[in-house]
Amino acid sequence: MSLQDDLKALRQQALLRISAAKTLKELNEERVKELGKKGSLTEVLRGMKDLSADERPEVGALANEIRNALTDRIAERQALLEKEVLDAQLAEEQIDVTLPGQPAIQGQPHVLQQIIEGLEDQFMGMGYQIIEGPEVEQDKYNFEMMNLPKDHPARDMQDTFYISDELLMRTQTSPVQARTLEQHDFSKGPLKMISPGRVYRRDTDDATHSHQFHQVEGLVVDKHITMGDLKGTLLAVAHQLFGEDHDIRLRPSYFPFTEPSVEVDVSWGPVTPDTKPEEIEWIEVLGAGMVHPNVLEKAGVDSSVYGGFAFGLGPDRFAMLKYGVEDIRNFYLNDVRFLTQFDQKG
Ligand code: DAH
Questions:
Q1: Where does the record place the Aminoacyl-transfer RNA synthetases class-II family profile domain (predicted)?
Q2: Among the three residues 59, 92, 125, which one is the final residue of a domain in this structure?
Q3: C-alpha separations of 144 from 150, 155, 272, 321 in Å
């Protein structure tokens, strides 16, 4: 066989093998095998040295043609295989944008926080300041300045966690009244504040008692504050929390820091002009009254000039009434199944 025949046979077989390469790796191996330095084409061309000068250009031209043909076929095949690889990858990584997403779990304010923030918004709208006080409190502010000297019997109403003789976990937010009165500069205007926060009592936890709960204290002191102002304010609170059609009623009561003192009930259902008084169910929700002159005087405020009202309400109790929660401990267990029921997003 002539060298030309060898070359033609090589071309035919090489083209077949190139077309048969199934992967890019196989194709590359084939390229090396056919066109590489030690490849079959080079091998055949080694025989050129034995040819006559007449034959060489012809064989050389054929060899070039074969090299080009093989190079083209390899490039073609390579393009095809690369496309296959890409297609396979795209198919595998395909994302179905119509699949429902995985919802992100979104947090929300605790139900008590919702109640407290509702009150904060409301009172800020009425020009009140929001003031916080310490939970570890001095006996002086928690009791003495609130008109409860050491031997006062009403101290028993609030079983206290004492830290030392003078330090305790505050049993009420009322000490913030004393702290604020002490600081307030009345030449700059009236004092209007609420103070939300945690309070502590040495109670045994049960459905209606918790050793830790919340209060929101309110205090307004100025020159001509009346009980009418107190009632109007608390009515606004009841409307915000329970609905515009609920009413409130004040009953005489006793607190050492207010005189007169009242207990405030809110109507369980709506009250319209047609509702008969005996049909209304009243629920006690908070304590309030006109600030006792002693509280003002102990804080250095002239009680012959200034007076005001105060109230203390329990967001825990409000939330229980509003949502029909029967066990106060639910608020403190942090069970998300309970808490997500009060999702504001609806
Ligand atoms: N501090 C009282 C308590 O914890 C609640 C209270 C009653 C606060 C009457 C007040 C008030 O400011 O005027 O039982």
A1: 111-341
A2: 92
A3: 7, 10, 44, 33
What mean pLDDT, rounded, does the chain reach?
A: 93
Name the helix (H) or strand (E) containing 34: helix 24-35
Q: What is the DSSP letter of 164?
A: S
- Is 180 close to ligand 1, i.e. is its CB under 6 Å away? no
For residue 327 the two structure tokens come to 């066990």
For residue 207, report the distance from its CA to the centre of ligand 1, in Å: 22
Residue nearest to atom 12 of ligand 1 (CA): 311
Residue 128 belongs to domain spanning: 111-339
Q: Is 0.70 topped by the overall pTM?
A: yes
In-domain check, residue 98: no
Angle at 131 between CA 125 and CA 135, to 5 degrees: 140
- At 37, is the pLDDT very low, low, confident or very high (cuts 50, 70, 90)? confident
Whether 117 and 34 share a structural domain: no
Question: At which residue do the structure tokens 């066990």 appear?
Answer: 327
| 151-165, 285-299, 317-331: range with highest mean pLDDT | 285-299
Average pLDDT over residues 113-134: 97
The closest of 250, 236, 239 to 289, measured between CA atoms, is: 250
195 lines ligand 1 (CB under 6 A): no
Atom of ligand 1 minimally distant from the CA of 258: 13
pLDDT-derived band at 3 (thresholds 50, 70, 90) equals confident
Of the residues 92, 126, 141, the one at which a domain ends = 92
Kindly state the helix (H) or strand (E) to which residue 76 belongs, with its residue range.
helix 55-92
C-alpha R_g of the chain: 45
- Nearest residue to 27 (alpha-carbon basis) of 97, 98, 102, 80: 80
Q: Which of 137, 142, 172, 177 to mutate to test the pocket of ligand 1 (most atoms within 8 A of CB)?
A: 172
